[in-house]
Design brief:
heterotetramer, A alpha/beta (about 250), B alpha/beta (about 400), C mainly alpha (about 325), D mainly alpha (about 290), A: alpha/beta, four-stranded antiparallel sheet, 9 helices, 10 strands, globular, C: about 325 residues, mainly alpha, about 75% helix, Peripla_BP_I (chain B), Leu_Ile_Val-bd (chain B)
Chain lengths: ~250, ~400, ~325, ~290
């Protein structure tokens, strides 16, 4: 098969409880796939299984024709399977420029060097500047992350991911927690992602999903209940049930 | 205004003159000891011995005033020991060094003595080998081998043939084990088992179980004085070894007077050998105990390091007398070689060859006095004991 | 630029110590040896976020290695320092391998267990280490064949100061290298670092080795200048004290390590000379006061003061 | 067999003594998240009070224990208000600095006022005798320590798991802000928990004095032991602390019986092994 990335029958049990059941999906290069689902559908577990934070009980993760299921999180990143985090995980004492520089150096396997300067490489510096420029982070490049706006932190998450030159990118709710005034900038960044990159986006914001995704997968109770194009999602009865059932529950609790 | 200035000037002048003249005539003695921390009691006894000597014998020798400078070295720490000694010699300009509780601390000072032209009088550190490190060291205390060796004969005399030895696993403990084994086997006994206990042992009942299982008729023990001793003796009583008739021999570190109140009645009957008991019956000791008790601040705190310090000060006074205030370490040491006097512990002398003290070792039994308090009662004397550790070298 | 100024300041302070306290050089040399130990802790605690109460194991490894080499005829000081650094690095490798298996409190306890085992091993191997009597009889040859390690301790002090400055410069390079940044990242969030495609364990282990070498140099310096190695150099007490010095000075700046060591040891020396019997209370009060006044350590306090100074100046401009 | 039984009972007694002294620290570290290195200092203060009450005033053992607990808590109240409150939620190393400082002060002050000698707490006749339990002679006091340990363990378990206060405490630990919002007076909960932990330290100091004698350096001398026991058990876990104390007590005791000269090797090798297998301690809470 020519798929860049696919998962086959991914299953995870915690004790007796199945949090992921027989999940299979495939992505060619250039894919823009959105994974949606109500709270507790198992999206985060899925991301963790794919990126290697969790080991599946059954199933395979295949990248570029290679089975990476047995590999740890770090090796998968090195093979081009990269993620962002739902809640930003950044180093509050470092600047965006330092984050991206470190990431580029790491990608080049130069990050464990002791006998070179952190900013000693002009080529790296140029790439970093380019990335930060693309994401509109140049003006805050040398301020500590703890002091910049949350929207900018989210953009930095994407910049870090891109600095790793991924083949497959998992965006875990890239717009979560961002004030609506800043969402256009995130959207813009998503539009500018390299075209050949396969992107799997997990998102709640349906507007964003509809504008971004070519295809949509809906997850509920650990299972895929829908695969298709965005325009069909709303009409699907199982999806409606999953969401509205959830909604009804939410109503009764309130 | 002017009058005030004049008075001030005069006062300053007097002050300056005073210090200058005093400095010219003051001989400084630096004392290093554990004055704080886990061994603070021993350091306090150093101070008590020094102060008692100066109270009884005056604070000057041949017109030279003696000034004592104390420096704290809470635990064995050679680097700090060297730093303190260096400071005392170079900065405070002391002409004599004294004190030192731990062997490694003494070892760190000995390489300095020649350049410093300063003798070191050791008040406690009890390893034989220190004396060979420098010809400028004199010791006024004891060595573990010296206080332990008579026990070999004593055990045999009391009908004991098989002994189990239990010592703390560190230098002095190992020395004690070796010295006892040598003396006991020379006298015809047999050490059936030798246990070395980690220094930080808190519960000694498993050791006592081993003592019981070994079938020995007596236990020979050495632990550093302090809390561990208490645990050991308690366990010896609690586990019924005492009632079972297993005898207990140890050097006197185990029944130092300041630990006796804590040991209580459990200590009664313990047999120890040592160079000094606070109860020693002599006029010299009465004077000493009176003065030292005053200095240490309570009779229950007085213990053996005080007498080492007291006699150490005696040695230093004699050195000052011989050199008449001039700094000449070799002459000072030569002057006390062969020196003999009556110490609170009994007759003593400095061995001319080893520079270590020759003294009586006493066998003591812990008994209950008429006031209900326990004390070490001297019941047998082994006169003029040298350090067997040095003699063999 | 700031670092150049900082290093000039260290050299100046070192020389000031030499001129102002010419009679306390042995103490100052000891301060330098401990400062190296505290620096090595800063590498692990301040830059990697690994808590340790057992760093003296590495210091002691360096001290004993240098001491044993010296007793066996290696008397050239620089060689001894190199031996100490090597031994420290090997010990660091071992310690890191064990400690990095755990996190948090468990890690702290592993470090304690390791230093206790080292201590016990040094006590047991008394044939080589002298046990509790200490390893004595180190006669170190003159530095460069000329300068003797003598009573006055000028050689030892200047040698130590030079070592400290060199190590400090080297460490400044280390912590500002890509590797140093990576360690800082791991300290803040190891999961993020993994998501960047970097392993955590080998990076931290590398820092343990570097830290071990630094601690080992400190140990070797202590051995050379004291000419005796005691069990205290592999003790929990030394480990705990030096961690206290580091926290006192402030973590993760390297400067804090130096400030903390000098303040703690200087204060301890001063109060224990004034009252050899009850100085501990004063040291305790100092620690409490620092926590109340400057929870981030003394260097953090300095930074705050300079930062507020800058801010006011900036405001005027 | 006799030997094994005898070692077992020694191990149990020692483990229980450790438990009583350490459980308070486990609570402070696990539930209040304060690395209280001064824990031993409070145990020591209690020891001094009990010694004064029993030896110098001639009061009974039970009264001495009671006075020691009350007295130590009273002493700790100003410390909690002035010092500990400042470090709740601080980084652990800051807490270490503060509590080591307190320990140094307590040691210095004790040494100044009471001198460096050992202090004993005379036992009543019924506890100071040796009891023959068939296969060995054991001090009655050891039986008392074992009983105390069991009572403390059960009592604490009941307090934390079964009472209203326990619920508030657990809520406060899990999320102080949320508990506050729900009307739990977290300051009071902290203060009470602190007092309980100090009270336990005091009880441990007095009851365990036969194992760990009272002297000024107590707080530092046994600090490592306390830290190790608490961490191996998992801070804040009562069953964890029980298991850790019994297991480490057993390792220590058998190690010292079988090969005393390698006793420390056994002990610390066991600690390393346990920590590597249970990195959070036996029943540690996830961090």
């Amino acid at each position: 098969m020519s798929d860049l990335f696919r998962v086959e029958g991914l299953t995870k049990n915690f004790g007796g409880l199945a949090v992921s059941r027989e999940i299979s999906l495939a992505m060619p290069a250039g894919e823009r796939l959105a994974l949606i689902g109500p709270n507790g559908a198992g999206k985060t577990t899925f991301v963790n299984l794919v990126t290697g934070q969790l080991q599946p009980s059954a199933g395979r993760v295949v990248l570029n024709g290679e089975d990476v299921t047995g590999l740890g999180a770090v090796e998968r990143v090195r093979k081009g399977l990269v993620r962002t985090f739902q809640v930003t995980r950044l180093f509050s004492d470092m600047t965006p420029e330092e984050h991206v520089t470190l990431t580029v150096l790491q990608r080049e396997r130069k990050a464990t060097r002791i006998l070179s300067r952190f900013r000693g490489n002009a080529e790296v510096a140029g790439e970093v500047e380019g990335l930060l420029g693309t994401l509109g982070l140049l003006e805050v490049a040398r301020r500590k992350v703890g002091e910049i706006a949350y929207g900018q932190q989210r953009l930095l998450e994407i910049a870090i991911a891109l600095a790793l030159r991924p083949k497959v990118l998992l965006l875990d709710e890239p717009a979560a927690g961002v004030p609506s005034s800043d969402t256009p900038r995130i959207e813009q960044a998503l539009e500018r992602l390299p075209p050949e990159l396969a992107v799997l986006m997990i998102e709640h914001d349906m507007d964003l999903v509809f504008r971004f995704a070519k295809r949509v997968v809906v997850l509920a109770a650990g299972e895929i209940i829908f695969k298709g194009v965005p325009s069909e999602v709303a009409a699907n009865s199982r999806v409606r049930e999953a969401y509205l059932g959830n909604y009804a529950n939410a109503r009764s609790v309130a | 205004m002017t009058a005030g200035k004049r008075i001030l000037g005069a006062a300053l002048g007097a002050l300056l003159l005073g210090t200058v003249s005093a400095a010219a005539d003051t001989i400084k003695v630096g004392i290093i000891g554990p004055f704080s921390g886990p061994f603070a009691l021993q350091g306090k006894n150093f101070q008590a011995g020094v102060e008692a000597y100066m109270a009884l014998n005056g604070k000057s020798v041949k017109g030279h005033d003696i000034e004592v400078i104390y420096r704290d070295l809470p635990a064995a720490n050679p680097a700090q020991s060297r730093a303190l000694a260096q400071e005392l010699v170079v900065k405070e300009k002391v002409q004599y060094l004294g004190g030192v509780y731990f062997t490694p601390d003494a070892m760190a000072i000995t390489p300095l003595l020649k350049q410093a032209n300063t003798p070191l009088v050791i008040f406690n550190a009890a390893t034989s080998a220190i004396m060979t490190q420098s010809p400028l060291v004199v010791r006024s205390s004891f060595t573990t081998a010296q206080t332990t060796s008579p026990l070999g004969k004593i055990a045999i005399e009391r009908g004991v043939k098989k002994v189990i030895s239990a010592v703390s696993d560190y230098g002095p403990g190992v020395d004690a084990e070796a010295a006892f084994k040598k003396a006991f086997e020379a006298a015809g006994g047999q050490v059936v088992e030798a246990i070395r206990m980690p220094l930080n042992t808190n519960d000694f009942s498993p050791i006592m179980q081993r003592v019981r299982d070994s079938g020995a008729e007596a236990v020979f023990a050495f632990l550093p004085s302090g809390p561990t001793t208490l645990g050991f003796v308690k366990a010896y009583n609690d586990t019924g070894l005492k009632q079972a008739g297993i005898k207990f021999f140890a050097p006197g570190d185990l029944t130092q007077e300041s630990d006796l109140p804590a040991l209580g009645d459990g200590a009664v009957g313990l047999l120890t050998t040592f160079h000094y008991a606070v109860s020693h019956d002599s006029p010299e000791n009465k004077r000493f105990v009176e003065a030292a008790t005053k200095a240490v601040g309570g009779a229950e705190q007085l213990s053996f390091p005080s007498v080492g310090a007291y006699d150490g000060m005696h040695v230093i006074y004699k050195m000052i007398e011989a050199t008449d205030g001039k700094q000449d370490a070799q002459k000072a040491v030569d002057a006390v070689k062969g020196l003999s006097w009556t110490s609170p512990r009994g007759p003593v002398s400095i061995d001319a060859e080893t520079r270590h003290i020759t003294e009586n070792i006493y066998l003591r039994e812990v008994v209950k006095g008429p006031d209900g308090k326990t004390y070490n009662k001297e019941i047998q004397t082994f006169p003029n004991q040298k350090d067997p550790g040095l003699a063999t070298q | 630029m700031r670092d150049v100024a900082g290093i000039v300041l260290i050299v100046a302070a070192g020389m000031a110590g030499y001129w102002l306290f010419p009679d306390n050089l042995a103490l100052l040399t000891r301060v330098i040896a401990v400062a190296l130990l505290v620096l090595s802790i800063d590498l692990i605690v301040g830059y990697c976020g690994v808590a340790t109460l057992g760093q003296a194991a590495l210091f002691g490894a360096g001290a004993y290695a240098a001491g044993i080499a010296c007793v066996n005829g290696v008397t050239e000081p620089l060689t001894l320092i190199a031996i100490g650094a090597l031994a420290g690095a090997v010990a660091g490798l071992l310690m890191g391998t064990i400690m990095l298996r755990a996190h948090g409190l468990a890690q702290l306890v592993l470090s304690i267990a390791i230093v206790q085992l080292f201590h016990e091993a040094a006590n047991k191997a008394s044939a080589y280490t002298g046990g509790s009597d200490g390893l004595a009889g180190l006669t170190v040859g003159p530095l460069f064949g000329v300068f003797e390690f003598d009573l006055w301790g000028q050689t030892a002090y200047l040698f130590g100061l030079a070592l400290l400055v060199l190590v400090f410069i080297a460490l400044k390079f280390v912590v500002s290298s890509p590797f140093g940044m990576l360690c800082r990242g791991i300290k803040e969030d190891p999961v993020r670092i993994k998501a960047m495609g970097s392993f955590v364990f080998p990076v931290l282990l590398k820092m343990f080795v570097i830290s071990g070498a630094v601690a080992g140099i400190g140990g070797a310096l202590a051995a050379i200048s004291t000419q005796v190695v005691g069990l205290d150099s592999v003790s929990f007490e030394l480990s705990a004290n030096s961690l206290v010095m580091l926290v006192l000075g402030g973590l993760g700046t390297l400067y804090g390590a130096l400030v903390g060591t000098v303040i703690f040891m200087g204060f301890e020396h001063a109060v224990s000379a004034i009252n050899p019997f009850h100085w501990m209370t004063m040291v305790g009060a100092l620690l409490i006061a620092v926590v109340l006044a400057a929870p981030g350590g003394l260097s953090g306090l300095l930074e705050k003061i300079t930062a507020s100074g800058k801010r006011t100046r900036g405001g005027r401009a | 067999m006799q030997t094994i039984l005898s070692i077992a009972i020694d191990a149990f007694a020692y483990g229980m003594a450790l438990f009583i002294i350490c459980i308070g620290l486990s609570l402070t570290m696990g539930l209040m998240r304060v690395v209280n290195l001064a824990h031993g200092a409070f145990a020591m203060i209690a020891g001094y009070i009990a010694s004064y009450a029993a030896r110098d005033l001639g009061l009974g053992y039970a009264i001495a224990i009671f006075l020691a607990i009350i007295g130590t808590i009273v002493i700790s109240i100003p410390l909690e208000r002035l010092l500990y409150r400042r470090i709740y939620g601080s980084p652990q190393l800051t807490q270490v600095l503060m509590t080591i400082g307190i320990t140094f002060c307590v040691i210095g002050i004790t040494n100044y006022f009471f001198g460096p000698t050992l202090k004993t707490i005379p036992l009543p006749g019924s506890l100071s005798q040796s009891v023959n339990v068939g296969f060995k002679t054991i001090a009655a006091h050891r039986l008392f320590v074992m009983a105390c340990g069991v009572v403390v363990a059960l009592g604490l378990w009941f307090l934390i798991e079964k009472t209203a206060f326990g619920i508030k405490l657990r809520a406060t630990v899990d999320n102080a802000a949320m508990a506050d919002a729900l009307g739990v007076r977290t300051q009071v909960v902290y203060a009470v928990s602190f007092a309980i932990a100090i009270g336990l330290a005091a009880l441990g100091g007095v009851v365990g004095a036969e194992f760990l004698p009272i002297e000024p350096y107590y707080a530092l001398r046994y600090m490592v032991t306390f830290l190790v026991v608490v961490s191996v058990g998992g801070a804040g876990s009562i069953p964890g602390a029980v298991v850790a104390c019994l297991l480490l007590g057993a390792v220590d005791t058998t190690g010292r019986y079988l090969m005393p000269e390698f006793g420390n090797f056994f002990f610390y090798a066991a600690v390393i092994a346990i920590v590597c297998v249970f990195p959070r301690g036996f029943f540690g809470r996830a961090q």
